[in-house]
């Protein structure tokens, strides 16, 4: 059984076909539109799904009949609807169309016939994509599941959700078609319990709160996301947070996701003035709160060295088991890099209190 097609964030190919030589088409994007999707022109919809793509490229692909919805080619004014099956093709061959199983160690928190719970480490991409075709979690799972079954056939891997490359923590992997469908429905219906621990800049004023906005791609910087008002652009995003521990200039918070948008916690915390500690993408890799003393600057830089990534960990995961129908719940320990930095801040805070 083959693995689901990889979603490749690359441009459509403009190259014309020779009269005598027909090039092979490749799948660029293959997805089912979310249940909550508002009607949106297909060209605008594709721009939100493919980083760096231009509107001219999208319109050319539509004119060339390289965009299909529910098995039929569509025109630019077609409006996508919930559960539409959209496929975009390109004549540019991807760097790799095959998932290569790789013997990469995995931290498995739980496994049965239906699913796997993985504790993903720092610096691991979840799914192969443009520029990342090896060393990913899917490559590791392909090896593990293939070896487990002692079969030469590639296993079925259901990625029902993802976390960023530099975010650590719990991921659910569906192993059967039934598990894929049932878990996917729970994520779409926002009934999955997901809590993250994040170290953020600043002393968060409220003990708890809710951030309710729309999140979409930044209008100029297409690799990052931004907050928008309702009706402008983006998807509805809700994050609940509460303070776990305070360290004067930084705060450890628990973030519970009601929705699951790309970079949601990172964007939402920045939006309320509390960028994640050492989040290079959103400006947290510089001193945003604290003193001007050289010793403090050295202290923060040492923390950055210990934790060379955004301070974000997917700590808990709970959902209805696709096989038994019972609610199951998983907890994970904070990784050592976050633990070390938190301990540094505890020592620093105690020392500061003694000096004040």
Classified in CATH, the superfamily of the largest domain is Pseudouridine synthase
Rg over alpha carbons: 22 Å
Task: Return the string of H and E elements.
Answer: EEHHEEEEEEHEEHEEEEEHHEEH
Q: Rough shape? A: globular
CATH architecture of the largest domain: 2-Layer Sandwich
Structural class: alpha+beta
**Count of spatially separate domains:** 3
Q: Could you report the average pLDDT, rounded to the nearest whole number? A: 85
- DSSP E strands, number: 17
CATH topology of the largest domain: Pseudouridine synthase
Number of helices: 7
Q: What's the CATH first level of the largest domain?
A: Alpha Beta
Low-pLDDT residue spans: 1-23, 93-97
Largest sheet: 11 strands, mixed
Write the layout of secondary structure elements.
Blueprint (H helix, E strand, L loop, with lengths): L25 E7 L7 E2 H8 L5 H9 L3 E3 L2 E2 L5 E2 L4 E6 L17 E4 L3 E6 L16 H13 L8 E2 L8 E7 L2 H12 L4 E9 L6 E10 L7 E4 L6 E12 L3 E8 L6 H8 L22 H13 L5 E9 L6 E5 L4 H20 L1
Parallel strand pairs: 10-16
Antiparallel strand pairs: 1-6, 2-5, 3-4, 3-6, 7-8, 8-10, 9-10, 11-15, 11-16, 12-13, 12-14, 14-15, 16-17
Helix pairs in contact: 1-2
